[in-house]
Amino acid sequence: MPGKFYITTPIYYVNARPHIGHVYTTTLADIVARYHRLQGDDVFFLTGTDEHGKKVADSAREQGVSPQDFVDEIAGEFQQTFTRMALTHNDFIRTTEPRHEKRVQAYVQQLTDSGDVYLGEYEGWYDESQEEYVTETNAKANDYQSLVSGRPLVRVKEKNYFFRLSKYQEVVRQHIEDHPNFIQPDARRNEVLGRIRDGLNDVAISRSTEPWGVSMPGDEDHSVYVWID
User: Is the distance from CB of 70 to CB of 56 less than 8 angstroms?
Assistant: First the structure.
């Protein structure tokens, strides 16, 4: 029976121009979207660009332009490339668009009002190349170097807004175990369950050191970190 079908590509990071990997991934999603349209499904196919974060701001500074001018140019190249390939996405979302920023702030405000987001302090290891915090266990296991770039991790201490991920540990675990097909393939489901059983920590969702991003509602000294964005 025909139904609704939603598919999205990764929202591509724009610290550099599009390459064959972006086209390959979007083409695969396009094939799936076309198939479901042929089946009579109501399809919504999304792609777009992730335009905030330190890497983007650094790339803009290296080229001597503002972050906004930089992302406008790169996002335009993504759009032109996908148009030349005759891809059939229904929407191309840019994270610097007002429609996106307003929704992010609204959702984060809801999480703050519910108590799921709070202001705290983080002290630990930070992978600058990947723009992510690293647990002491994982940092030590990799000799305090980035697992991806090999660069040394940086010890940081700063105030951040946190999401109470630990609050949902048992709820998420139970849902995954009750719905075996929720995460596929099996190896990835078991990996996630193993991580949950090790214990989930609250996760920082803001940065105070890089202003290029969506401002935290009510606190312009912090920008929303892209993972929750």
Answer: yes
Q: Is the pTM of this model over 0.90?
A: no
CA 132/CA 182 separation, integer angstroms: 26
Which of 220, 103, 210, 227 minimizes the C-alpha distance to 163? 227
- Through-space distance between the first and last CA atoms of the chain, rounded to whole angstroms: 34
DSSP code of 83? Answer: H
Query: Locate tokens 């999401």: which residue?
Result: 163
- Looking up tokens 């503002």 gives 66
In this structure, the number of other CB atoms found within 10 A of the CB of residue 7 comes to 17
pLDDT digits (tens, 9 = 90+) for 179-218: 999 999 999 999 999 999 989 989 889 988 778 999 999 9
* Spatial separation of the C-alpha atoms in residues 36 and 44, rounded to whole Å: 10
If you search the block for the tokens 């990071």, which residue do you land on? 13
